[in-house]
Design brief:
This protein has about 180 residues and is mainly α. It contains 8 helices and no strands.
Length: about 180
């Protein structure tokens, strides 16, 4: 792919993302005006404090997530809704989107485990859906995937603990309003 084509794709993605964000803002404003925003957010497992990050990150996370799941051979229909929502949220707040897009476009560079915040979730889904295809790093030989326990690395554990604290603070702040 030429540099001009890459630039055109980047501009196109940017414009489409802006349109999606404006549309989402309008729809959320309409729900708020009708007094139904909190109920709708609760139905999808969100709170008001998550709306701004949702709008800011709404450009293409589902597109990237869908491509990643498809490339890995993970059936979206067989994933728990909560797991899919958590993966979409992680994808939306991802700081390595450029690595992801590059990996999805040409599969060059490091393994997705080195940059993707959903790597553990993908491995878990692979274990459950395709034990024979699960990565050797993620699935020890001879183990039943349903019996495996996830032991995060120290940096992953710190990130998970910080995320949990942020969620607790959001819940407390939302309940105080």
């Amino acid at each position: 792919m030429t540099t001009l084509q890459e630039l055109q794709q980047t501009i196109s993605r940017f414009v489409k993302g802006g349109r999606k964000r404006r549309q989402l803002k309008r729809e959320l404003a309409q729900l708020a005006a009708m007094g139904e925003l909190d109920a709708v957010l609760a139905d999808v497992g969100l709170v008001r404090s998550q709306v701004q990050p949702l709008i800011a990150g709404s450009a293409d996370p589902n597109e990237r997530l869908d491509k990643m799941l498809d490339r890995l051979g993970i059936d979206v229909a067989r994933l728990p809704v909560e797991s899919l929502r958590d993966m979409a949220w992680a994808c939306m707040n991802c700081r390595t989107k450029r690595h992801c897009r590059q990996w999805l476009s040409d599969n060059k560079g490091p393994d997705f485990h080195s940059f993707c915040p959903n790597a553990a979730e993908f491995d878990n889904a692979l274990w459950r859906q395709h034990p024979e295809l699960a990565s050797s790093r993620a699935s020890p030989a001879g183990c039943d995937p349903r019996e495996l326990t996830f032991y995060p690395r120290t940096d992953e554990l710190r990130r998970m603990q910080a995320d949990a604290r942020r969620r607790e603070v959001r819940v407390l702040l939302d309940s105080a309003m």
